[in-house]
Structures are given as C-alpha cells and as structure tokens.
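Run log // design_07
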C-alpha cells in the first residue's frame, strides 16, 4: 500500500496513548482511513521492587499479525523509572546517569489503518506502570 501514500508530506501528529492500569502493557490501534509514518515513540516505565529486570519491546501489528518487534536498547532493573524512546535512525548512546533509553526505528516506517503499535514488557510486575505515552507520526487521512 505504500504506493498509495501521497507524494506530499503528511501532517505531523502527536498521539497521546491512554495510560494502562498497573501491571499492564499498552497498545494503540490506528484509526480507520489513516496511514502513519512512525517518527518516534516515548513512554515512562516505573517499576516496583522485586522481580527480574524489565525488557520493553515495541511491536507493530497489521490485524492479528505482528510484523516488527524492536527491543529497548537496555533493560530496566526493579525499583527504577526510565523513559524509553524509539525514534527514526540512529539510536544514539546511553550515558551514565541518563534517564532515557534510546532505540532506533526504521526510517519512515509506514502502517496502514487497522494496524497497531504497542509494548510488551518481559518480566512486567503487577505493580509496574506505563505513563506519559506518546507516538509522533506523519499522518495521512484518506478521503
């Protein structure tokens, strides 16, 4: 369907994802008649003490089929809070004391209506929470 994307630049849009309840990962389902080029995904994971290190993995789905999975660049120990970022291009470097965890997305990764973006966290504890979830996309709306 990429051939149906207009030659013109799409509209940059910030999608604010609803924070899930404690112990749950999150997912955003694309609106109908929409196409997205995903530019960036950012979310804060706050973990409770105990359990194994958490490893967030960003995934993309078309219908019920997963088409891409991108693990975070670093895991998160129990009892911590970090902002996880996935963005186009080079992931950058992790610096000691930094509160973010950058990872890379494919450049201009296109998703069609009905697709979904979400996170599955390995070793997620029932008390862990995801908040401040935003997805920045270039968006096209079909007539």
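design_07 sequence
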């Amino acid at each position: 369907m990429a051939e149906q994307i207009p030659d013109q630049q799409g509209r940059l849009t910030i999608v604010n994802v609803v924070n899930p309840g404690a112990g749950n990962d999150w997912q955003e389902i694309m609106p109908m008649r929409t196409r997205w080029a995903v530019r960036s995904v950012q979310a804060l994971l706050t973990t409770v003490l105990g359990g194994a290190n958490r490893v967030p993995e960003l995934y993309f789905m078309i219908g019920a089929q997963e088409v891409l999975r991108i693990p975070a660049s670093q895991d998160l120990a129990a009892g911590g809070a970090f902002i996880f970022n996935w963005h186009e291009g080079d992931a950058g470097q992790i610096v000691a004391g930094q509160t973010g965890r950058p990872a890379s997305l494919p450049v201009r990764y296109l998703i069609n209506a009905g697709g979904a973006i979400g996170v599955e966290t390995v070793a997620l504890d029932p008390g862990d929470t995801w908040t401040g979830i935003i997805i920045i996309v270039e968006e096209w709306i079909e007539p």
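The radius of gyration is 16 Å.
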